[in-house]
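This part of the workshop introduces the protein records we will be handling. A record pairs a protein's sequence with a compact description of its fold. As an example, a complete record with its sequence and its structure tokens follows.

_____
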Amino acid sequence: MFVLEAIYAGVPCITSDLPVCRDRYGNTPIYVKKKYDTGEWARAIEGCMKEIDFLTQDAKNKKQWILSNRSFRSQAVEMDRFFKSFLADGGKEWINR
């Protein structure tokens, strides 16, 4: 199951500690720093199982965050804002980045 879907389904999620994950999901998932270290993944799973009740409730609470920030509608609003600002200045702000 993918991170976003896991959060939306209200289940705890463990994922690699990548900048894109931190950017997209904030502090919602449990992060594993060394993605190829099976021992670290096992410890993350063990830790998750010890805190399963708290993590499950926390994941359920994050569903509203997803609906507000990562739904199709919220992404469409974000894209609309981007294109309007892009067209307003002829793309100069984005070209000069």
DSSP finds seven helices and two strands in the chain. The chain has a mean pLDDT of 81. Residues 72-88 form the longest helix (17 residues).
